[in-house]
Amino acid sequence: MPLPTARGEVSAALLDALVREPGGATLPGDRSLREADPYGDDSQLALYVCYELHYQGFSGVDDAWEWDPGLLRMRQALERRFLDALRSDATTHDDPDAAVSALLVEPADGTGVSHFLRDEGELWQMREYIAHRSLYQLKEADPHVWVLPRLRGRAKAAMAAVEYDEFGAGHGDRVHAELFAALMADLGLDPAYNHYLDATSARMLAVVNMMSLLGLHRALRGALVGHFATVEITSSPASDRLAQALRRLGAGEAAVFFYTEHVEADAVHEQVVRHGVIDDLLKREPALAADVAFGVDATVFLEDRFADEVLDTWRKGRSSLRAPL
User: Fold this and answer.
1) Distance between CA atoms of residues 95 and 79, nearest Å
2) What is the spatial distance between Cα 240 and Cα 232, in angstroms, rounded to a whole number?
3) What is the DSSP letter of 309?
4) N or C: which end of the chain has fewer CB within 10 A?
């Protein structure tokens, strides 16, 4: 894909550098890095672009940029501010059992995006939500693979079993990212990887960036496991509501199938992650307990921020995207 459009001083300098040769370009300076809002469009886009060099990359960008020392120093400065903000704003538990237990209770009067779409959402709102989510779903499970070399024993085996399902259990047409692309096509959206990057809000970028941040750093392996547990625990009921929404809106079979597939699969994955991955990891490395809890809390915090923004704009009759579909 081509490079996206800059959203501020930091991302503009980074994007300008990436079209040049590594080592000879001017990257964002310390002042601009310090002043950028850790949750804002500028810093979140810059982080997303840095992380994307570890995934599919960008057309016209030298692959050598992936491990360029200057770019890594710049990324580290952005990561530290983002992580510090999350630890300050999101942390509510130090006990992973308490953090996970809070996820297991489905409120009777839920007000999230999936509830809204099931009960009253319109097709244009569903299409916007899918466009937002495409930034992760078209690389679904990729950030979590990085934790596998950092696990041992039962935790490694259980995590690999879940990832095997996410990647289609050996069947290319069943890879979850491919199923999401079919969903997008069914809804008349462009399923090209990162096609909606310029349209997506900073709050969605932060959701995806946190996965990459936790996955890339071995020191954050506990938080990555907590994050993954949150995704799997909350996915099944939300997927059921989204499948109901798509049926009500008259979507095609491919669109509905993506979420019905996740209702059953993620109900199983929840048990595997909780009892196979978390329990065994903490048995081997009990010092990671607070990090696991942080991974849960940070995921909930960023997802709630994203949901609040989307629902607020929709209730005002406005698009939640930077560029309406």
Assistant:
1) 24
2) 13
3) H
4) N
Please give the Cα distance from 194 to 2 (Å, whole number): 9
Burial level of 24, CB count in 10 A (0-12/13-18/19+)?
A: exposed
Distance CA 164, CA 290 (A): 28
**What count of residues does the chain have?**
325
Q: In 274-285, which positions are buried (b, 16+ CB within 10 angstroms) versus exposed (e)?
A: bebbbebbbeeb
For 218-268, the pLDDT digits (tens) are 999 999 999 999 998 888 899 999 999 999 999 999 999 999 988 877 677
- The number of beta carbons lying within 10 Å of the beta carbon of residue 106 is 9
The whole-angstrom distance between residue 260's C-alpha and the CA centroid of its chain comes to 20
> Mutual orientation of helices 202-216 and 289-315 as an angle, nearest 10°?
160
**Sign of the CA dihedral with 179 first, then 183, 188, and 192 last:** negative
Q: By the 8 A CB rule, do 226 and 292 touch?
A: yes
CA distances (Å), 112 to each of 88, 121, 210, in order? 24, 12, 20
> CA separation (Å) from 61 to 50, 65, 199, 284?
11, 8, 21, 41
Closest listed residue to residue 73, CA positions, set 40, 29, 108, 125? 29
Rounded (5°) CA angle 238-177-220: 75
Other CB atoms within 10 A of residue 314 CB: 21
pLDDT > 90? residue 109: no
CA atoms within 13 A on the CB side of 164: 9
